[in-house]
Design brief:
membrane, mainly alpha, two-stranded antiparallel sheet, 20 helices, single chain, sugar transport, ABC transporter involved in vitamin B12 uptake, BtuC
Amino acid sequence: MTESPTQPAGPKPTEPTPADSGPVAEALEAHAAADTAITDFGIDTTSRTTYEAIGDYWNRLRGGELGAVPALLGLTVLVVIFAIASGDFVSINNLANLLQQGAGPMIIAMGIVPVLLLGEIDLSAGTASGVAATLLALHFRDHGNLLGAMGDSMFYGFVVGLVLAALLAALLRLWIGVVGSLGAVAVLLLGVPANPYLEMLLAILVGVGIGCFTGFLVAKVGIPSFVVTLGLFIAWYGVILQLIGAAGTVSVRQSDVLFNVANDSLSVVGSWILFVVACGGYAAVVGLRHAARLRKGLVAQPTPLVLAKIVGVVVLGAVATWLLTLNRSPNPALTDISGVPYVVPIVLVLFVVGTFVLDRTRYGRHIYAVGGNTEAARRAGVNVPKIRMSVFIICSAVAAIGAIVYTSKVGSVDGNAGNGNTLLFAVGAAVIGGTSLFGGKGRVRDAVLGGLVLATVQNGLNLLGFQAAPVNIITGLVLLLAASVDALSRRRAAAR
């Protein structure tokens, strides 16, 4: 005869009622689970003091997470050196010119950042931007008659190539690539009369088509990106030579819109409106996000640090806007040159959009995931080939925007468009700013900071009378130093 199991001490469980097993019970259980999670992971609701936050940041720096600190320190040192060496460097006219000169490579660098985040490289971004600029200039010069400007073989070759690019994008369901490539085909075939806005759109659409072709070869065919883009770098350079010729030049100075993109400025009123929108938007986003985290009990930066960041950005923005709205003309009695250059809002828009996409969207998280560990991302359900192809589309499209700015600054397109140092400075800007060549680490701001560093080096050395050779040597050494800092910081982080 067996004894029944001994019942544990305490009250007996009650029979479930309809309310216990319905929506009310489920809600109570979910609430209890949330409370348990908060208890188990207390760090999610732990607030830090200002001193603790600064200490934590210092520990991350010591651990090799340098971020943009080297670029900021380097930029500060360069500005001080050139300001001491040449009084012209800190003139308002030169500072505005520095922004206009550096905007083209800076924008191309912003497009290269997503590619570098995957541990890939796009060596063809420079000449791809040159191809986009060439079609823009030919469309303007020949009043939309690209068939006559390009010749039969090149024209129909481009049409077939862009249709193929659309098909390749469709295979991976990248509809932006399909729309962009077919849009370029439509502009080519319709022969729409010259229009500066249409020509800028054409350049971007051609960039999208080029990116589809590059990305498919890397993502689906499996050819290493270095090999693909090196081959396309040479091929696109040949296309430019075929369309323009080694000694040829196509001017766009006759178009006020095209020429003013990188050579004109907002009005004084427009400049202050830009300040209010940019700095006010930054303050609103950062402040509201901080308030929301505090309200939900999530870990957040100390409020004094958040306020200090907002005040710092607003003050710097106000000072920069005020300086740029002063008359910086070499002959103030004859002409008035004032206002924030047009390239500044262009860079700001790309910066905000790129930062939002990488930091606040699922697509951006997938890019970081693939760059950090491709196999883990694939097992988590990320469509790795689609992500890899998409970043090359972004790179080429943004490079085309950089080509528009660069073409506007120079006022023409020649046979070396996008060749030479264009790509090297763009990649260098991203790396100098803090984007890792090993993948998984970097932000769009890195391209902006690195672009400012390179523009400062070139501008300052030119003011001091240095020729091309020492400028290239020093720029190369700066890039080498940045790559060394990246490698050493990664080694230090791994050792910890």
